[in-house]
Amino acid sequence: MNLVVPLPAFSDNYIWLVHNGQQAVVVDPGDAAPVLQALEQLQLRLQAIVLTHHHGDHTGGVAALRQVHPCTVYGPAGESLPEPVTRVQAGTTLTLLDQPWQVLHVPGHTAGHIAWYCPTLGAQPALFCGDTLFSGGCGRLFEGTAEQMHASLAQLAALPGNTQVFCAHEYTVSNLRFALAVEPDNVALQQHHAWCLAQRESGLPTLPSSIGLEREINPFLRCEVPAVVHAAQHFDPSTPATNPAQVLALLRAWKNVFA
Question: Exactly one of 19, 28, 31, 57 is catalytic; which is it?
Fold first, then answer.
């Protein structure tokens, strides 16, 4: 049985440590210190490091980890990463912790962003999506287009509904505050927002989410829902919202200035 442990880093990052009691895989280690501490406490051997994109808060701990735990680092083919890296691309499947880890190409936040999907990691499938999909939100469009992000999110939304979503940041409460501005009458969203507030007040993560839940509450996965389209158009009536990618572009521009 594989377990997934959140390792908080910086102000709001999660480094995900996946282990079977003996070996571990770490996802996006921006900081080596919490990973080294967890590996020592749990007496685990680091089998591999997997990366989703090149930003420093996801890669900054790689070199220090490798000094203590020499292992293979896997990362997206099209991004600048701390070498040496074994490059992977859409369609690649690795066997880690005796389970298949499939690579999905999900550009938008960065040009070469990937996600890791494990259909049999535990009792439910697991998705490690970096900064593409957040609970209740999506990443900023630093290097990609709204069309790319919409296609990436549609690919993730098509995964089985019980897929656990391991996002890389604890942004959920602020994302849901924005989502409620978009869809104030969404009951599932209201209920999940209340649950997340209670989680954070208790010092607990709001993650993982699930694909099924995100389909119900995340406006960036709901760009064809009339209420979402109307809200996006109301934000900027001068910009067309005749297709889902245009709706996503409006939502992302609104989120960028949402207080």
Answer: 57
- The pTM of this model reads 0.97
Q: Hey, what's the torsion of the CAs at 152, 153, 154, 155, to 10 degrees? A: 50
Establish whether 54 is a catalytic residue: no
Is residue 57 annotated as a catalytic residue, yes or no? yes
Which pLDDT tens digit goes with each residue over 208-225? 999 999 999 999 999 999
Catalytic residue flag (residue 31): no
| Residue ranges covered by each domain of the chain | 3-166, 172-257
List, in order, residues 6 or more apart from 115 with CB less than 8 Å away. Answer: 52, 103, 104, 106, 127, 128, 129, 130, 132, 133, 156
Does residue 55 carry a catalytic annotation? yes
Fold of the CATH domain 3-166: Metallo-beta-lactamase; Chain A (3.60.15)
CA distance 182 to 200: 22
The residue from 19, 28, 31, 53 that is catalytic is 53
